[in-house]
Amino acid sequence: MIRITCLGAAGTVTGSCHLVESPSGKRLLVDCGLFQGGKMMESRNWSDWGFNPEEIDTLFLTHAHIDHSGRIPKLVKDGFKGRIITSPPTAELCSIMLLDSAHIQEMDAEWQTRKNRRIGRDEVAPLYTVDDAQASIKLLSPVERDQIIEVEPGITARLRNAGHILGSSILELWIKETDEAIKIVFSGDLGKRHQLIVRDSHEIFDADYLFIESTYGNRRHRSFDESKKELLEAIRYSTSHGEKVIIPAFSVERTQEILYILGELYRNGQLPDLSLIHI
To answer: Which residues pair with 70 in a beta bridge?
Structure first.
């Protein structure tokens, strides 16, 4: 019997992690993300895994966002030694992002330790270190999308474009149960259509079981043209009142999209004269 356990991104939008156990005893993970959003939520990053990391055979990573990839160094630190199957662009992004995340973990622990010392409390260890991140990067096993690969005996997989960020993937997983293969699909995070940089997501037409992202499933987004108009109006209002325009863009690919839009508005002569300051 196939067993799937949701260990994150259920009841919350961060910490994506799914444990898949096959009839043959193979144990797979789909994503291993960091819990984010306040002290109570982030404390879950220190909780017991709910499985033994040493017993995980393979990890599938749908994309590089930290809420899907950010606990991989801790998984490796705690004993995981298997392959991390992902797309080539995701592997490249993780080579940057996991090191950055580890640096933040170390800096946060150092800051908390200094604070604790002033009140006589113990030192604080980071969730994981840069060394842990470097060890996890060595386990990345890039696989081109749209190719069916054998992961383990009786288990095959394929990555398809999810249209979310560069390299983001939908995972198709076939697991043999008795004489038939059961198809399980994990959507990962899905992008909307007609984006500036990434292609529209691949359409999946069949699955026995589907695990799908539903973060924005209960709302309608405004149109892209409405969003561009709102950005332009905000810039024009600020500059006409002698104010600064500060755009916090911390998400992967969000900065590139904003620069794309600003360039388009500039070329069309819609932007007022601006002095750009990069921080």
So the answer is: none
